[in-house]
Amino acid sequence: MKTILKISLLSALFITLSASASDKAVNQSIKRVSFNIDGRDYTVSFNCPKEFKDSVFKHDNMLSVILGNENNKLTISYTNIKLNDKELNYLKDEKHFKDSILKPFSDKENLLYGQYELINEKYSDKHYSIILTGFLKKPEDGYLPDTENHFYQRTDILFNDFHRLSCQVSGRQSEAATTKLIFNGNLSLCRNVIDSFKVEHKASK
What's the whole-model pTM score? Predict the structure, then answer.
């Protein structure tokens, strides 16, 4: 079970790392995006730039939505994983939940390393949440080029499902200074996106 869950969480991470675009400035005008997920009794919503368009990817128990625009380097990604009972019980252990989020910052097996700053942690009966900001680096692996990804991110267990929302800027490691500069320039926007995240019961018909 832990192996299957690890693969799902890594897939969610690599979707985030692979999201990229060009390096123009982001229009700060905001819209509210809201969507339902098949088979779930809740609605997910958060803020994002008005000009952003979405791409949706589905695989088994995982759904990912990447929002961006070809004219800028900032992207927003949301990943939803439907957890089975064993996976849910595993992540409902506070240590397991936190370790699963922080492991990529020192993951020799998957050639990942980086630094993070914890912004907020929440543990209650129905809602686990960790918000952090940081960066991850991954060298070229024979399939994908090297990357450096700066992000503001939240990971939640809500309605017994896994949710991850990330606002990030990605680039090659040779572009690290530019990537960091663009991310810092969009930090207030990213904070707005992450803080606006809501998961609510679907309205009754």
Answer: 0.86
Q: Tell me how far CA of residue 44 lies from CA of 24, 50, 66, 83, 192, in angstroms.
A: 28, 17, 14, 17, 16
Farthest CA pair distance, the chain: 53
> DSSP letters of 16-67?
HHH-----PPPP--EEEEEEE-TT-SEEEEEEEETT-EEEEEEETTEEEEEE
- Per the CB < 8 A criterion, the answer to whether 78 and 101 are in contact is no
Q: How far apart are CA 74 and CA 168, in angstroms?
A: 6
CA 34 to chain centre: 16
pLDDT digits (tens, 9 = 90+) for 142-169: 888 899 999 999 999 999 999 999 999 9
Q: Which helix (H) or strand (E) holds 80?
A: strand 74-82
Q: What is the mean pLDDT of the chain?
A: 86
Taking each helix axis from N to C terminus, what angle separates 176-185 and 187-195, rounded to the nearest 10 degrees? Answer: 60
For residues 63 and 22, give the distance between their C-alpha atoms in angstroms, rounded to a whole number. Answer: 25
**Contact (CB, 8 A) for 197 and 154:** yes
